[in-house]
Amino acid sequence: MRTYSITVAKASLSRLVEKAVMGEAFLITKFGRPVVKVVPYDLPAAIAKKRFGFMAGQIKIPADFNRMGSRKIRRLFEAEK
Question: Fewest beta carbons less than 10 Å away: which of 4, 45, 64, 75?
Answer without folding.
Answer: 45
